[in-house]
Specification:
Length: about 180
């Protein structure tokens, strides 16, 4: 699931990445949810709708293009909330993984092969997700390293605060009459 960018080229690049991912993993069923969040630009909406129809046809993905509120672009928080609510609604009780992605993500990960860096290595992301879903995990939080539009300190701070709160929560759990940690 993703939120469209007002710069249509970014979202079209994301759709190309999803197309390649789907073609590499033809045995995996993928539903794609895109929240249109580019304001009242009908030309962008029409182009995105056409590109999603072509993606559906090329890959046999099931795609959902959600329209945002008519009063313009939503904030990041509002858009993410709306995207998550709609993913829940679309799942309709099915217990399957949902992968929330920024529309500027790329699935390749530069990988050190010892004698060289493989700049085009594409791991089996969907296999990882399938493996994680078999563990019974309800939520898995990861990150994509790269060039986020935030200072590095802001990113690491968020992860450390999340870790702190989770450790505090875990320390309050009781297992077999003793504390879990």
């Amino acid at each position: 699931a993703t939120i469209s960018s007002p710069q249509i080229e970014i979202t079209l690049g994301f759709l190309d990445e999803v197309r390649a991912l789907a073609k590499r993993n033809i045995q995996t069923k993928i539903d794609l949810v895109v929240l249109y969040n580019s304001g009242d630009k009908d030309s962008i909406r029409r182009r995105l709708s056409q590109e999603i129809k072509e993606l559906e046809s090329d890959t046999k993905l099931r795609c959902f293009l959600l329209q945002q509120a008519p009063e313009g672009r939503l904030s990041i928080a509002e858009a993410r909330t709306l995207l998550q609510q709609n993913c829940y609604r679309i799942l309709n009780g099915r217990k399957i993984p949902v992968w929330l992605l920024d529309d500027d993500v790329h699935f390749d990960i530069p990988t050190d092969k010892g004698d060289h860096i493989d700049w085009n290595f594409i791991p089996n992301h969907l296999g990882w997700i399938a493996d994680l879903s078999e563990t019974g995990a309800d939520v898995v939080i990861g990150s994509v390293a790269g060039d986020p539009p935030l200072p590095f300190a802001s990113i690491i701070r968020t992860q450390i605060v999340d870790l702190l709160h989770n450790l505090e929560w875990f320390s309050g759990l009781v297992c077999n009459g003793s504390h879990a940690i």
